[in-house]
Amino acid sequence: MILSLALEQLLNGLQLGVMLFLMAAGLTLIFGVMGLINLAHGSLYMVGAFACAVVAAATGSFWLGLAASLVCAAAAGAIVEFLVIRRLYDRDHLDQVLATFALILIFSEGARWLFGSFPLYLDIPPLLSGAVPLPGIEAYPLYRLAIIGVGALVAFGLYLLISKTRLGMRIRAGESDREMIAALGVDIRTLYTVVFALGSALAGLAGALVGALQSVQVGMGEPVLILAFVVIVIGGIGSIKGALVGALIVGLTDTLGRFLLPSLLGLILPASTAGTVGASLAAMLIYIVMALVLAFRPRGLFPAKA
Amino acid sequence: MWKFCSNCEKGRKKPARTQNAGGHKTMEQSNQREHAMKTFLSAATLALSLSVSSLAVAEPIKIGLITTLSGGGAGLGVDTRDGFMLAIKEAGNKDITVITEDDAQKPELAVQIADKMIQSDQVDILTGIVWSNLLMAVAPSANAQGKFYVSTNAAPAALAGAKCNPLYFNAAYQNDNLHEAMGEYANKDYKKIFIMAPNYPAGKDSLTGFKRYYKGELAAEVYTKVGQTDYAAEIAQIRASGADAVFAFLPGGMGISFMKQYAQSGVKTPIMGPGFSFSQDVLPAIGDAALGVKASGQWVKDLDNEANKKFVPAFQKEYGRLPSLYAVQAYDAAQLILSAASKASVKDAKAFGEAMKAADIQSPRGKFKFNTNLHPIQDIYVTEVVKEDGVLTNKTVSKIFTDHGDAYAKDCKM
């Protein structure tokens, strides 16, 4: 019983980590290539979830919704890049933070204006609903396994894209020397738009996948955004590999902390106090991990070449 | 105690300071003149209308409605505002002005808005806050400045006992009430229960309330992060705990996430919770995963009384959706203010407070009266989530408490 609980919590941590990776990959890619801090990344996550919920409700198909979430988030990202972000590349980070924070407010109130304040309904597709037995575990939700699978595929796909394709080559070149790659005749503006749209699509995908598990509502992106920032700070800003490792560390620390700390404290404190103290400590745990990582590796685990 | 006193002083000093500031005096005077004029006019109207209607108000009343209209908790605030405004609209009372502002579920913002409403808008009554942590930041200081606070939802234990206040009314319940009802109900069928709530004042009140009446064994007592959206870790613990039922207090988006994930987890342990975890505002988003869940409420949509039969269709007609608990609570809060306004002047705090305490209203809940600590004494029901014409809603199963007060009233000396 104890072993199966521990295994199940490990899978839960893995799944949370994979979900965070989808968010953090886009965030770190955008920062690495364009040097831009994008606070509105959580809004694109929300756009993906809303697009999926609306299309799934209209057509009855989750899969069409999922496709719509990718398209809508990428389109929203490209439009935002074209209209707003493009003007921010030469500004300092404070201006970028201010402008993208304004975007959060615009996206949130826009979504409320269009869809109202009440959460939307989005359910898991019948194909992936229910739970399956796994070795050592009584039953585990199929949908969470699918999220882990999607995350692994995306990680592999990003690796191929960045190390094997022409676009990937340009992204890497853009990371190391912006002026030089522009001087060599690469259309840097289009490259930026493409990278921003790609990052947005990943956030939208995460939003749609998670929306089916959680509630699709205005403001759903901001809590995830904070975690995604913790992930890229731990992993090293600008590094996809760092984002993957950081996401798994945060996912596992958070899940195992929530489960183990109250039980451990329960050995020395009365149950109800252990519950509250444990919960409060667990909520702090990932930030403690982040502080430790920064104390020993101030630029994160896998610092990108600056 | 010290904190409260420092508040009172602040409250007394601040208006004096603004009056001393140059230029304010003339405004103050013209305000007074206007005020005298208005009083004269309304007195005349009162004299005229006394023969016609009993609803006339001697004095204009300004109400500040602070509630959550943006962010994840906005559904609750929107229902609060709509329920409140429905009662105001039905009364058609021209002397009552309601100023509405959004607190975005942030305590610091709620405090700023309250200060602004008291000092520059000069409201007489504050109301509308959904969350206990926000209420704790606003209500005691408003009371210290001599303003009424009528709570439409939040009801922390701290304000129901020794720190009760003649200017603080709660039209909803005391935070523990609905949880106590589920604790009492659980005694019937279950021996070992897994209980869970978010780690904030109302969450702790919740589990305290449940344990006050529940006699069986606890499988575990788990506190989650406020605003948490992923419950995989807790669901795994439920699976491993061997509990025969789960009691979860997770309002708003938290409940939606938990219920959807629970339905997918393959864990079959029955779930129950207080009414607001399965209220009308979240049911459509949870979907069929909520079917059959038992909850508690001091109001249910199908309660058989005249006021309720009028209220539900009126709300539906006005806003095109079914009302939730929050809407009813706010509707009653507005009714309480209206009924007091028809009997006394809000400037006479003692008379107005007594008129409000008389609770001369037709509540959709049926019986409603105030306890000595100005929290309700009311019946509480157990409900079940069902599907009616394709819409998920709650139906009454049984009455669990009759004329139920709260555990803190005895500590309240007023």
From TrEMBL, chain A:
Keyword Transmembrane helix set for record? yes
Does this UniProt record's set of keywords contain Signal? no
Query: Topology relative to the membrane, per the entry?
Result: Multi-pass membrane protein
Q: Into which family does the record put it?
A: Belongs to the binding-protein-dependent transport system permease family. LivHM subfamily.
Q: Where in the cell is it found?
A: Cell membrane
Spell out where the chain crosses the membrane: 16-37, 44-60, 66-85, 97-122, 142-162, 190-213, 225-252, 264-296
User: Which InterPro entries does the UniProt record give?
Assistant: ABC_transp_permease, BCAA_transport_permease
Q: Please spell out the taxonomic lineage of the organism that makes this protein.
A: Bacteria, Pseudomonadati, Pseudomonadota, Alphaproteobacteria, Hyphomicrobiales
For this UniProt record, the keywords arranged alphabetically read as follows: Amino-acid transport, Cell membrane, Membrane, Transmembrane, Transmembrane helix, Transport
Q: Which domain of life is it from?
A: Bacteria
Classification via Pfam families: BPD_transp_2
The source organism is Neorhizobium huautlense
The name this protein carries in UniProt is: Branched-chain amino acid transport system permease protein
Cross-referenced PANTHER family, in alphabetical order?
A: ABC TRANSPORTER ATP-BINDING PROTEIN, BRANCHED-CHAIN AMINO ACID TRANSPORT SYSTEM PERMEASE PROTEIN LIVH
